[in-house]
Amino acid sequence: MSCAFSLTVALLGSAAAPLAADDPKENAPQKYRQAQDMAYGAALYDYFQGNYFDALSTLLVAGQRDAILTHRDNAALIEGGISLGFGLRRHAAELFEQQLQQSDGDSEAETRHRKVAWLKLAELNYLQGDWPLAAEQLQKSGAAQESALALNLALRSQDFSTAATLLHREALPPEQRILGYINLAAAVAREGQLSAAALHYRKAAELAAAQEDPSAEIHVLADKAHIGAGYVYTLQQRYHEAMEAFRQVRLQTPWASRALLGLGWSAFNSDQYQPAIDALQFLVNSDGDSAAAREALVALPYGYEKLQRPHAALAAYRRAEGHYQSVLVQLQQLQRDIEAEEFAPNSDDTAQRYGWLQLAEAPQLMHDNRRYLQPILQSDDFQLRLSELRDLRQLAQVIEDWQGKLPQLEQLIDERKQRRRSIVENYHSAQFDQQVEIAEQQYRELETSLARIERQRDALALMAARPGDSESGEMLSLLRRAENRYQMLNDLGRARASQRKTLQRARGLLLWQASEQYHDNLWQQRKQLRTLDEQLREATHQRRETDLVARRAPQLNQLRAKIAAASPQLAARHSAITRAGNLIEESIRRDVIAELARERNRIRQYVAHSQLAMARLQDAAMQNALAPGQKQAAGEGEGGADE
Q: What is the pLDDT of residues 96-122, one digit of tens each?
């Protein structure tokens, strides 16, 4: 809980800067309404989505690339907060200390950064047990009046007077004050100061009762205060006050069983046997699976004995013994099941890396038998180890997924290598060079022809060269063939004047048409020449770019070597994670079995007590049954003597 609280405070304090309004002062540090660094914004997004691992990864990568410039201080605080949440206390301390070394200005943002950094360092050193240093850093943070850490430090150092003074501050929320009184009462009770403990428990209960609209948490704290006060009164032999305190606890709560058990024993000690029986019987009927109910089963017959009801007591002892024998069988079977139980089984689904700050769920087997395993299920150490085991199993699953992807990556590299080779070979092939040479020759021919046409202003040639105008080209071709035939006929003296005039008229018409289209045809030829020139330039540029990319592109052989090196690394890490997970799982199993053994020992003591009590009651019954006969025999003997 403290890690999650630290993480929240750090992130809320750090994220305030980029979302603040613009500062109207010219000389004041500029504030932003939105994140100015992409990586910082991505980290904030992942954090508020609950993807703490991705947020931390983004910040670490950005730090390596120096990608966060504007919000570097905020990013460092966020990274420290998330690292603290993941248990990376040393790394978090380094980040906070760096912030303290770098923050030497007097601006509002730097003051806030120093305050958060000192507070985080104080919490870190408190978690590590260095309480004097934590107290010193808490004072430097200036947040001693706003944090419950000062109270915890006073309790750790057994400075109970300072703790009591701190609890009188109204700056703390009511929930923290009530909890503080309960913790103070428990601390002084451990030192044997029972009167002071009772006083602090009573103050906690009175403070809870004084709240106008108490929350569910305050109701729970009030019940805890009444239970604590009841047991302190019992230790002081103030049984009537203990009974009144126990009666203040709400019945429909998980911890009512402790209050009912305490009420029963307090009533026994004050010779109020019937109220004790009523409380214990109600406990057995309402919560028969709890540890308190198992103790109540053996206490009930004692009340019947005190009420001179031996038959009821004997029957109750027999019921208790039968129940205990059944419980012993269940515990034996549960131990066998626990020995084969996987506390964090590998999931076939994709490992979720989100929500790692949440506690892991205990196996269903333990939930189903929580009546025997309640103490260990409520243990912080058990929950932390179970969460660590869950995280290790998920890491192992992630590594297994990557091990399955390595062959696919090798295949992709081979395909990419083949594709690159084909592209490079295509641009360096003889066919490509031949195509480029043909295009260059066509360009030179077109350029020479166009220069001659412009020089001679040969409109007919330009018409013939125009692409897409097949009709004009065909007419010009027919004219030239007709002129050739006319010249042959003229050489033979067989040509007529009308034929010459017809050819001249046709040429004139074509020449007039070509002259009309000269500029358009010339523009089309120049356009074709430019297009061809651009194609040649593009081919040259593409070849140059291909060579450059081929030289600058990632070396696929190096990538393949990295993948080959990654395979044994992943295998080694998977093996190390598996070994660490197995050690944690074995320690969890060992502690659970030890808890079952302790429960068996308690049950065996209850069985022995029940059997001894039954033997005592049966012996007393036999003595009572034999007593009249013994008296009669004694009377007859006396009469015979008299006779």
A: 666 666 655 555 655 665 666 677 667
Tokens of 338: 């626990």
Instruction: Indicate the DSSP class of residue 29.
Output: P
Cα 138 off chain centre by:
29
Cα–Cα dist 203/182, whole Å: 9
Per-residue pLDDT tens over the stretch 464-520: 655 555 566 676 677 677 777 777 877 777 777 777 777 777 777 766 766 666 667
Mind giving me the DSSP string for 344-412?
SPPPSSPPP-S-TTSPPPPPHHHHHTHHHHHHHHT-HHHHHHHHHHHHHHHHHHHHHHHHHHHHHHHHH
CATH T-level assignment (fold) for domain 1-141: 1.25.40
* Of 172 and 275, the one with more pLDDT: 275
Cα separation of 90 and 80, whole Å?
Answer: 10
Question: pTM of this prediction?
Answer: 0.61
Residue 169 backbone dihedrals phi, psi, to 5 degrees = -70, 135
Question: By C-alpha distance, which of 253, 251, 254 is closest to 263?
Answer: 251
The larger pLDDT score, comparing residue 247 to residue 177, is at: 247
Choose the weakest-confidence range: 38-42, 150-154, 362-366, 631-635. 631-635
How far apart (Å, rounded) are the C-alpha atoms in residues 51 and 86?
Answer: 12
Query: Residue 265: pLDDT above 90?
Result: yes
- CATH 1.25.40.10 boundaries in the chain: 1-141
CA 232 → CA 198, 199, 255, 270, 607, distances in Å?
6, 10, 17, 15, 29
Distance CA 293, CA 21 (A): 60
The rounded distance, in Å, linking the Cα atoms of 224 and 291 is 18
Burial class (CB in 10 A: 0-12, 13-18, 19+), 265: buried
At 595, list the tokens.
């808890």
Residues 6+ apart with CB under 8 A from 303: 264, 268, 273, 274, 276, 277, 280
The DSSP code for 564 is: H
**CA-to-CA distance for 69 and 56, rounded, in angstroms?**
17
- Give residue 25's pLDDT: 40
- Rounded Cα distance between 599 and 139, Å, is 46
pLDDT tens-digit series, residues 517-566: 666 766 777 777 778 777 777 777 776 766 666 665 556 677 778 888 88
| pLDDT tens readout for residues 440-450 | 777 777 677 77
Contact 124, 117 (CB under 8 A): no
* Cα–Cα separations (whole angstroms), residue 311 to 267, 273, 314, 322: 22, 16, 5, 17
Two tokens, residue 423: 């592209």
**pLDDT over 90, % of the chain:** 28
Range of lowest pLDDT (229-238, 382-391, 418-427): 418-427
Place of tokens 């601006």: 107
Cβ(78)–Cβ(22) under 8 Å?
no
Neighbour count for residue 416 (Cβ, 10 Å): 14
